[in-house]
């Protein structure tokens, strides 16, 4: 009968494209990975890879079994994480990582209920971009993350949508784009874009690269200041830009397509090892409907 190690070797080979790359990712010898896959093929009584080319490619049978293999590995991961969390005591401290583009005043209201029920609980708050927060959760530097929704959430994280925040395109009042109405998105390609990305140079799934001339930051408030100084246009949460718009130093980009902005969902993420603990369930309950 097939084993978890065999399924890991199979799925990782597909994801990385070769037996050697899979071995490097899994920290095993290539011969071990190859043998796991051979044993899986014996157990399934069918070849899963074509090996005639330079790189292995899935057979029709391999394509059929791949999604089920991924699902089994995810269930095994959840079982392992749930088992590890069965006898965890209430933690003495919790680290919450928050995307700095999400209004802290709103989130802070949720902490009152938590503090009342757990008066001895110590809280630490970290601020980072959403993609950096996902890395923090992976390494358990943070236990709870509040981020803008990403398309690719690791399977070891549980998540729940809390609401949404409006984003719009902004420009300094002194910028050349402020004196014209952009007919379409192609006008934006002629001017520098100010774009958010993580400290590991990943770009969020809703932060699109439009202009060939881009300046980056991992912080919305740095982008705000660069925009105020006239260095380019950028996409910002409306509440971040609100004060500067009221002062007149920043304006919503004049564009013929009036609603170029959009609503970005906000999610709370918790590692599976901790998400079933009562204190984390209480935190999620307090956060619901705040946005």
Automatic annotation (TrEMBL):
Q: Where is the HTH lysR-type domain?
A: 2-59
Per UniProt, which keywords does this protein have?
DNA-binding, Transcription, Transcription regulation
User: InterPro entries from the xrefs?
Assistant: LysR_HTH_N, LysR_subst-bd, WH-like_DNA-bd_sf, WH_DNA-bd_sf
Q: Give the superkingdom in one word.
A: Bacteria
Q: Say if the entry is tagged with keyword Transcription.
A: yes
Spell out the PANTHER family in the cross-references. Answer: HTH-TYPE TRANSCRIPTIONAL REGULATOR, LYSR FAMILY TRANSCRIPTIONAL REGULATOR
Name the UniProt record assigns to this protein: LysR family transcriptional regulator
